[in-house]
Amino acid sequence: MLKSIVRNLANLPGWRTNRKIVVIESDDWGTIRMSSKEAFNSLLKKGYPVDQCPYNKYDALESNQDLEMLFDVLNSVKGNDGNPVILTANNIVANPDFEKIKKSNFNEYHFEPFTETLKHYPEHDRVMDLYREGINNKLIMPQFHGREHLNVTLWMKALQRKSEDEMVAFDLGIFSSKVAQKYGYQNEYMDAFDFKNLKELVFQEKAIIEGLKLFKHIWNFDSESFIAPCYIWHSQLEKVLKENGVKYIQGLINQLEPREGDSWSYSKKYHYQGQKNSLGQRYLIRNAFFEPTINPIFDWESDCLKRIDLAFKFRKPAVISSHRLNYMGYLNPKNRSENLIKLKSLLTKIKKHWPEVIFLSSNQLGNLMNK
Question: In whole angstroms, what is the distance from residue 294 CA to residue 55 CA?
C-alpha cells in the first residue's frame, strides 16, 4: 500500500503529455567491469566474492554479438510512428590506461578512450561499426555517463599505498572486484563523482569537460543529457555540464549529493519529471525499472508494465531504467539470451497494451519537453 502511494506521489508533479511515450535509459556502455572469464575465476580462487555481485559475474565491455543480438530485439517492435524501439546508451567514454599508470609507478593517472579499450578484447573488433549502424537505424542513442565510471582519486590512493586487494584487481585489468566493501565503502570505486572533500570538485569538473570533448570526438555530436554514475553528484557540477552543452540530467527521484567528511553520507535532493534547475536544465526521472540480472526471481515484466500504466494514467512519459549488464553475454551467453527474450516479451506487451506508443531517446524526450 505504501509503495503504491509513493508511486502515485512520484508521478503527480511535473511535465505532462497525452502521448504514450516510452524511454529506455541504459547505463555503463563503454566501461570495463570484469575483464575476462579468466580474471573472474582467478579472483574467485583467491577468495574474492565476485560471484556474489551480478555486475562482476555478468557485466563486461560490450562485444560484437552483444550489440547484434540486442539490435535484433529492438528492431522487432515498432512504435506508432513507425520507428523501432530506441535505447539510450549512456556512455562512459574512457577507461584507465593500466600500462601507463603502472609505468608511472602509480604516481600518475592516465586514461584511454573506450574505443582503444575495445582493441584489447577478442570479440569486439566491429563494435564501433555496429554502433554507427545502430544510430543510423534509430536503434541506439549514446549519451554522456562520464569520462570514466571510476572514483579516480580514491582508487589511485589505494594503488599508491600498494593495497593488496586493489593491486590484485589491477593486475587483471579491472578496478571493481568486490574488494573495497571490507572497508565499509559500498560503491567499489564506481562512484565517479563522490568525494570526501569539496576540493575534489575541481578534478571532477575537469573530467566532465574532457569527457564531453571526447564524447563529441567519438560520436561526432554533442551529448544533450547526462547521468551520474551511482546517481551521486554535487549540484555544483551542473554548471560545468550546462557550459558544455548538457541540457538534461537523467536520474532517479532522489539525487545523492556528497557531504564533506570521513563517512560516506549524502544529502537527498528531490526532483520531479521535467523539473528545471536554476540554470534551465531539466531533470528526466526514471519511473520504471527492468533489471532481470540484478534479481532473477523478481517479476520485472509485470512490475514494469504496472509502472508504465501508472505513468500513462498521470499523463507522464514512462522512463525505464535497464542497465547494460542485462544484455551482456561475453562472460556468460545465457545471461544475454535469456534477458533478450524477456526484453522482447516486455516490448511486445507494451505495444499490445498501448498501440499508440512511441519510443524516444532521453534527449528526444528533453527536446519535446522544451517545445
Answer: 8
